[in-house]
UniProtKB/TrEMBL annotation:
Subcellular location: Cell membrane
Superkingdom as given in the UniProt entry: Bacteria
Described purpose of this protein according to its UniProt entry: Part of the binding-protein-dependent transport system for phosphate; probably responsible for the translocation of the substrate across the membrane.
Keywords, in A-Z order: Cell membrane, Membrane, Phosphate transport, Transmembrane, Transmembrane helix, Transport
Name recorded for this polypeptide: Phosphate transport system permease protein
Transmembrane segments: 29-49, 82-112, 124-143, 163-186, 211-232, 279-301
Record-stated family: Belongs to the binding-protein-dependent transport system permease family. CysTW subfamily.
NCBIfam families membership: phosphate_pstC
InterPro entries on file: MetI-like (IPR000515), MetI-like_sf (IPR035906), Phosphate_PstC (IPR011864), Phosphate_Transport_Permease (IPR051124)
Gene encoding the protein: pstC
Length: 307
């Protein structure tokens, strides 16, 4: 009787070990498969976009100098021209000016949330930031189209459709991203920094300005760069307020276009393999290259933070 009982216990234990081993093996397979597919998808997109983007130069015989330095964009003319400087300038202008506006606002809000606000302030601000992150970009664009564009036209000047309108819309869109990541950077600082500063007689503002902000600079810059990464890739909201013209803007009140807006506007009206279609792929390749540069900057700052 006891022999049968011990045998059954051994079978149950062996079955449990086998089940645990299979479960662990299945978990590893899922994780490795997900990581492999992510790498393959990234490489596939990069290779495909590089191959398609370079066809403008070695198949359509478009001069790189004309493409990057000319403002003449007339792909449907008798003598087609493909100068993309206007769109490259538009994308960089919207991204950089938005980052300059949002950086102090986002970091300031993060300081208020993490260092100054009482507990009720954090409970109110955090959901507000999360709601702003979750609003679809088309909603931002629609509000910009119906509220911001008429306001600029009536109060500032111009048609309202302008570089300024797109900068304001994108700034609002990336503000929650910069704020959230900046707050995370400040929260990751060791409490010993604060307590040591206070023990030496520093005030709260002196602690923030001379201790916490210098220590959190890599994380804060990462927040701004990730905000720029979202700004450079935004298309729909900008397309609704920027005016979509092939003209280099002389001021913030002039309409213009970005790389993303010209791609979304024209991709459906071009023939696959035509020169204009290849040029749009080239614009996509430039956006990808900028994204890679921003990611490399984030990785560099992350490495500095660990040193």
């Amino acid at each position: 009787m006891q022999t049968n009982l011990r045998a059954s216990e051994r079978i149950v234990r062996k079955s449990r070990k086998l089940s645990l081993k299979n479960s662990e093996r299945n978990g590893k397979m899922i994780v490795y498969t997900a990581a492999f597919l992510t790498v393959v998808a990234t490489l596939a997109v990069t290779i495909f976009l590089t191959q398609r983007g370079l066809q403008s130069f070695y198949i359509s015989d478009i001069s790189p100098l004309e493409f990057f330095a000319s403002t003449n964009w007339d792909p449907a003319g008798d003598n087609p021209t493909y100068g993309a400087l206007v769109f490259i300038f538009g994308s960089l202008a919207v991204t950089l000016v938005s980052a300059i506006i949002v950086a102090p606002l986002g970091i300031g809000t993060a300081i208020f949330m993490t260092e100054i606000a009482p507990s009720w302030g954090k409970r109110v601000l955090q959901p507000v930031i999360e709601i702003l992150v979750g609003i679809p970009s088309v909603i931002y664009g629609y509000i910009g189209l119906t509220v911001l564009v008429p306001f600029i036209r009536e109060q500032v000047g111009g048609s309202g459709y302008s570089l300024m309108a797109s900068i304001v819309v994108v700034s609002v869109m990336i503000l929650p991203t910069v704020t959230t990541l900046s707050a995370d950077a400040l929260n990751r600082l060791p409490d010993g920094l604060r307590s040591s500063s206070y023990a030496l007689g520093a005030t709260r503002w002196q602690t923030i300005r001379r201790v916490l902000l210098p220590a959190a600079i890599p994380g804060l810059l990462t927040a701004v760069i990730l905000g720029m990464a979202r700004a450079i890739g935004e298309a729909l909201a900008i397309q609704m307020v920027i005016g979509n013209t092939e003209l280099l803007p002389g001021s913030l009140l002039d309409p213009t276009a970005t790389m993303t807006t010209i791609i979304t506007l024209n991709m459906g009206h071009t023939t696959f393999g035509s020169a204009e279609n290849n040029v749009l792929w080239t614009l996509g390749l430039i956006l990808l290259a900028i994204s890679y540069l921003l990611v490399m900057a984030v990785r560099f700052l992350g490495a500095r933070r660990k040193m």
